[in-house]
């Protein structure tokens, strides 16, 4: 079974809580605080495994959660860090944020790794909050929560050459002839229901990888047939071998078929339309008039395609010439990965935790004031890391809000004494 897309839930480990502890030892009546820090939560890390060729495993397991960090202990003992969760994916996997659709990472090299979710930071124990003026702090910092999100995995096959063409034009026969791949071959449309990869090894040329991409028909870019399922696999190829049925036994016009396929490429991604193509007129063993090929070649040349070959995949006539031309072109074309539009790149790590402020007036007839709602991932994580019922911890909360510029933004928005600041379910009155 070939699976090339998946949607999974990932969650990194929560940081361990800092400990509240005081040294208790004979003859040491005022030992002071000795609560240790909590351990860091485990990361969720995706790594490339060249032994995997599909995303089938993600059909059966859709939730990946890393280990939490341990809580801090007494005697300044630190909690153990949570173990990282290693998730193996095939080479050529694209990771996207499910909510925004932004690309997080393109794992297109053999040793690529990517931290999809970072573990929460461990909380500080009360030992870390001791100062000359605050010698016995009775609070510690909770561990930060881990990151969690849904992500989309998308597999784009890595091949040097991609085979194009309408169903039943002989793509599978060609790839079975030049490689050891054994795709299903039959005389009906959509025989091939999954991409087939093969390595071409011919004496005198450098080996290269070729992919039979099924399902490309008229309307494929809009999702007709199997088009959208497999058009993505062409994106990584360096050249395209466009196979056309020249025999006309199905009553199709080869020139019209050639134009339609290229139009689908252009609609899906204009860069694919510009990719170098070798045009192959297949099934020439069934031709009764050589003028048919010459007329086809002339019209294709007029469109700007000068590499046009005559071939019969069934009898192997002309196959070697096509393979050698592909190998020659590959030597001249640099190896490039997936070209990602900068606008599609994922939000940088430093901008991932932000906040927004909105204002709503309040008036019950007796008093009126404004309520400033501060929302966003930054304040969510901050609020989860403090105990607002403990005075020293609350002062730390206000200090962070001030250092991060939240109070500055509130003042610029016109906040006044007596207005209310609401952070999730926690509210406090603003005082200049």
TrEMBL record:
A single Gene Ontology biological process assigned to it is: ribosome biogenesis
Q: Which SUPFAM superfamilies match?
A: Obg GTP-binding protein C-terminal domain, Obg GTP-binding protein N-terminal domain, P-loop containing nucleoside triphosphate hydrolases
Residue ranges of the OCT domain?
A: 345-432
Q: Which residues form the Obg domain?
A: 1-158
* Key words, A-Z: Cytoplasm, GTP-binding, Hydrolase, Magnesium, Metal-binding, Nucleotide-binding
Report the locations given in the UniProt record.
Cytoplasm
**Coiled coil where?**
none
List residues of the OBG-type G domain: 159-331
GO cellular-component term (any):
cytoplasm
HAMAP family in the cross-refs: GTPase_Obg
Name of this protein: GTPase Obg
Molecular-function annotations in GO: GTP binding; GTPase activity; magnesium ion binding
Residues binding GTP are 165-172, 190-194, 212-215, 282-285, 312-314
Originating gene: obgE
Family matches, as NCBIfam families: Obg_CgtA, Obg_CgtA_exten, PRK12296.1, PRK12297.1, PRK12299.1, small_GTP
Q: Where does Mg(2+) bind?
A: 172, 192
Cofactor(s) named in the record? Mg(2+)
Family as reported in the entry's similarity comment: Belongs to the TRAFAC class OBG-HflX-like GTPase superfamily. OBG GTPase family.
EC number assigned by the record: 3.6.5.-
Q: What does this protein do?
A: An essential GTPase which binds GTP, GDP and possibly (p)ppGpp with moderate affinity, with high nucleotide exchange rates and a fairly low GTP hydrolysis rate. Plays a role in control of the cell cycle, stress response, ribosome biogenesis and in those bacteria that undergo differentiation, in morphogenesis control.
Q: What is its main location?
A: cytoplasm
């Amino acid at each position: 079974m070939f699976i090339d897309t998946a949607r999974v839930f990932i969650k990194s480990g929560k940081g361990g809580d800092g400990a509240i502890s005081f040294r208790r030892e004979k003859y040491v009546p005022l030992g002071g605080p000795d609560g240790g820090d909590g351990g860091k939560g485990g990361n969720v890390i995706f790594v490339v495994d060249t032994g995997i060729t599909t995303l089938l495993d993600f059909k059966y397991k859709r939730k990946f959660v890393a280990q939490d960090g341990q809580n801090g202990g007494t005697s300044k003992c630190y909690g153990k860090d949570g173990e990282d969760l290693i998730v193996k994916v095939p080479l050529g996997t694209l990771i996207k944020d499910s909510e925004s659709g932004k690309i997080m990472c393109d794992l297109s090299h053999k040793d690529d790794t990517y931290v999809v979710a970072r573990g929460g930071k461990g909380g500080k124990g009360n030992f870390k909050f001791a100062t000359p003026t605050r010698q016995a702090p009775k609070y510690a910092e909770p561990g930060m929560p881990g990151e969690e999100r849904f992500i989309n995995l998308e597999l784009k096959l890595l091949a040097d050459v991609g085979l194009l063409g309408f169903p039943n034009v002989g793509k599978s026969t060609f790839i079975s002839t030049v490689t050891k791949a054994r795709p299903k071959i039959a005389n009906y449309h959509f025989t091939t229901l999954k991409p087939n990869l093969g390595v071409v090894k011919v004496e005198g040329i450098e080996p290269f990888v070729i992919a039979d991409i099924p399902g490309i028909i008229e309307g494929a870019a809009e999702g007709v047939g199997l088009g959208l399922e497999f058009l993505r696999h062409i994106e990584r190829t360096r050249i395209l071998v466009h196979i056309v049925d020249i025999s006309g036994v199905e009553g199709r016009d080869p020139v019209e078929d050639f134009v339609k396929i290229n139009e689908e490429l252009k609609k899906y991604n204009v860069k694919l339309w510009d990719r170098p193509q070798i045009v192959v007129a297949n099934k020439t063993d069934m031709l009764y008039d050589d003028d048919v090929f010459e007329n086809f070649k002339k019209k294709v040349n007029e469109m700007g395609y000068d590499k046009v070959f005559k071939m019969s995949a069934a009898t192997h006539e002309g196959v070697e010439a096509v393979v050698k031309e592909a190998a020659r072109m590959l030597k001249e074309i640099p190896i490039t990965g997936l070209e990602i539009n900068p606008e599609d790149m994922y939000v940088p790590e430093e901008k991932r935790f932000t906040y927004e402020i909105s204002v709503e007036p309040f008036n019950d007839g007796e008093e009126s004031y404004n309520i400033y709602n501060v929302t966003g991932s930054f304040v969510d994580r901050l609020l989860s890391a403090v105990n607002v019922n403990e005075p020293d911890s609350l002062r730390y909360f206000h200090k962070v809000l001030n250092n991060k510029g939240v109070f500055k933004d509130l003042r610029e928005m016109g906040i006044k004494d007596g207005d209310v600041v609401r952070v999730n379910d926690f509210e406090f009155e603003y005082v200049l």
